[in-house]
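Hypothesis: this fold can be encoded by more than one sequence.
Test: take the structure tokens below, design a sequence, compare later.
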């Protein structure tokens, strides 16, 4: 009997170890630089990471070459997580590029690989000094995206670190800013609407030059005299289910206490969270694909008429 209990305990512990990444792990343990490693820095015992976008011409062998490289975004920096995940919570504190950040984009998103990829996005589009940032959100399922919603913020995102968290479970995706839900995308697979639940996603974050489209449709260019641009990332916390391939489609979704994200509390927002989300959406939404009738020629995507909370 005691042996059996011991066996179950060992099994339970190994299941937890299998599914949960070490939550308190630092940036060097969790992520690597995909580009720009020479510019970005890690500090505070690995809890802080600074993404940097510079004007490369400082080290220019040829000004023309470097103008081209800079315009392609090669002067920025980016990270990717070692592990992929399927469901859970991905949490990051971010302090955006201060001052004149027009033309810069700080991206923070989850994505799988391949041409039918899944993706959940937070992107922060910089602006001229004093003008507000745009927070861009989107979701892709099996390669299909086009579900953009954009927001302004109710605080200055460059003055301090704020909490940007993605909750993702078999029932819904919730984008949180400082614990306020700003958007929900529910799983309506039963109605034929794609939902990301069969591919592991990696975390990516990067700072790059997007002045060909980002600020006011590309009209406002990066002012390189303000370079280097720096965005701070802090306390990355993946409380999420590790992806080990096809078997994870079941093991990360199964309703069990070690898969905390499958608990009924996370399948739907509470009444007070719905109230918070309505406050954000009534006051700060600036673009919603669901009300862009012209774009869809009045054939609105099916999820637009379904409840999202
Ligand atoms: C980078 O800075 C130098 C000197 O400040 C400037 O001459 C050059 O045009 C800048 N490069 C780009 C790509 O703007
Ligand atoms: C960040 O927000 C998430 C979602 O609301 C929350 O679970 C988490 O505790 C917050 N983290 C911090 C450090 O406040
Ligand atoms: C920048 O600020 C202007 C003026 O408030 C606004 O129209 C624009 O949407 C803002 N965001 C971006 C990314 O351009
Ligand atoms: C998951 O398990 C909990 C606790 O046993 C239960 O309350 C809930 O209804 C279950 N959810 C589903 C989708 O089966």
């Amino acid at each position: 009997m005691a042996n059996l209990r011991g066996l179950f305990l060992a099994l339970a512990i190994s299941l937890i170890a299998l599914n949960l990444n070490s939550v308190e792990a630092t940036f060097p343990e969790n992520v690597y630089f995909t580009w720009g490693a020479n510019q970005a820095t890690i500090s505070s015992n690995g809890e802080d990471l600074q993404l940097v976008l510079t004007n490369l011409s400082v080290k220019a062998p040829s000004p023309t070459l470097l103008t081209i490289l800079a315009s392609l975004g090669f002067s920025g920096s980016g990270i990717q997580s070692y592990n992929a995940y399927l469901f859970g919570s991905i949490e990051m504190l971010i302090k955006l590029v201060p001052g004149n950040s027009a033309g810069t984009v700080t991206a923070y998103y989850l994505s799988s690989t391949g041409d039918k990829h899944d993706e959940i996005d937070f992107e922060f589009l910089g602006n001229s000094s004093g003008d507000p940032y745009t927070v861009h959100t989107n979701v892709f399922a099996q390669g299909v995206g086009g579900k953009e919603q954009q927001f302004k913020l109710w605080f200055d995102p460059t003055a301090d670190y704020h909490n940007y968290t993605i909750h993702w479970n078999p029932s819904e995706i919730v984008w949180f800013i400082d614990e306020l839900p700003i958007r929900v995308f529910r799983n309506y697979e039963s109605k034929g609407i794609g939902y990301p639940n069969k591919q592991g996603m990696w975390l990516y974050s990067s700072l790059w030059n997007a002045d060909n489209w980002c600020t006011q449709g590309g009209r406002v260019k990066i002012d390189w005299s303000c370079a280097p641009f720096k965005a701070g990332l802090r306390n990355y916390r993946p409380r999420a289910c590790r992806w080990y391939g096809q078997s994870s489609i079941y093991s990360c979704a199964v309703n069990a206490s070690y898969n905390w994200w499958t608990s009924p509390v996370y399948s739907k927002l509470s009444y007070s969270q719905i109230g918070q989300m309505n406050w954000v959406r009534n006051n700060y939404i600036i673009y919603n694909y669901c009300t862009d009738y012209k774009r869809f020629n009045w054939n609105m995507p099916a999820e637009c008429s379904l409840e999202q909370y």
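The CA atoms of residues 28 and 269 lie 34 Å apart. The chain has one domain: 24-305.
Hypothesis status: open.
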